[in-house]
């Protein structure tokens, strides 16, 4: 026992590092499993867990490990809520389609029942003709029955066309509703830019297709002081104005979105050098003095951001690419220090 204790004490650092490596590996596996279980919600979980892995790689104090455990639990809870919401939405979509189909089938069934009764009566009438001896009466009855049969067939055709037209109209209404819901689900309600869910889908598609692209992450400098000093209404106005200016600095086909909070993201089909040239143009045309209105008189605030840029490498995960963009952005953030936005 003494020898075992000495062995543990002598290799304490190595055991600690091994435990941390196992913990980080578990977090990575957790993120990958979340993506497989529910792709629309899993990417955000994967990215959040990756950030926690990075913090544990930099330092490993007891308070940090405890904080990491709490944040892992929070990430998993948020992932569970997002996944549940996603699958609830899919269930409602399926239910609505089934209701449309059921109503259509019910209408067709009622129509077929009417025609079944009509054809039964027609068959009975034809059977009655066999017992008739008067040829004139037989002829008149046949002509009358033929006319009724023709009218019935014509009515069937019209009813069938009406049912198809009605069904097409219902499905078109449902399609329009789905398209509108999809549009709203992909738009950030405050800024009007693409939201995080939409950007994640854009990134996944590019990776699946193996297309070369770059990302730019913008993190507004000193934004917390805006909310603390002037209130959230002014802060929201800054975000909206910055979003409008940022959107205007790129082509309509470029993907510009709000990643969350005061972070924005742009996805471009270009390499790293071209992306950095775009950043310089943004610094020139988007950063600067903004006049914002909230409670009280208008205020002029100097707005800029730290920017991280990374180009996707073939075979690389989205999380790994974001890690490099984040590292680039945090270098600038650290260099900028704590800047107070002037009033």
Furnish the topology, listing elements before pairings.
Elements: H1 2-10, H2 12-37, H3 39-58, H4 62-129, H5 135-185, H6 196-209, E1 214-220, H7 223-230, H8 232-248, E2 255-260, E3 263-268, H9 272-285, E4 288-292, E5 299-303, E6 305-311, H10 318-336
Antiparallel strand pairs: 1-3, 1-6, 2-3, 4-5
Helix pairs in contact: 2-3, 3-4, 3-10, 4-5, 7-8
Which properties best describe this structure?
alpha+beta, 6 strands, single chain, elongated, two-stranded antiparallel ribbon, 10 helices, 343 residues, four-stranded antiparallel sheet, 72% helix, Alpha-Beta Plaits
Please describe what this structure looks like.
This protein has helices spanning 2-10, 12-37, 39-58, 62-129, 135-185, 196-209, 223-230, 232-248, 272-285, 318-336, and strands at 214-220, 255-260, 263-268, 288-292, 299-303, 305-311. The protein is an alpha+beta fold and 343 residues long. The chain has a domain at 196-336: Reverse transcriptase/Diguanylate cyclase domain (Alpha-Beta Plaits). The strands form two sheets. The protein has a four-stranded antiparallel sheet, sandwiched between helices. Strands 4-5 form a two-stranded antiparallel sheet. Helix 7 (223-230) packs antiparallel against helix 8 (232-248). 21% of the residues are buried. The model has no long low-confidence stretch (mean pLDDT 75).
Provide a concise account of the structure shown.
The protein has 343 residues and is α+β, with helices and mostly antiparallel strands.
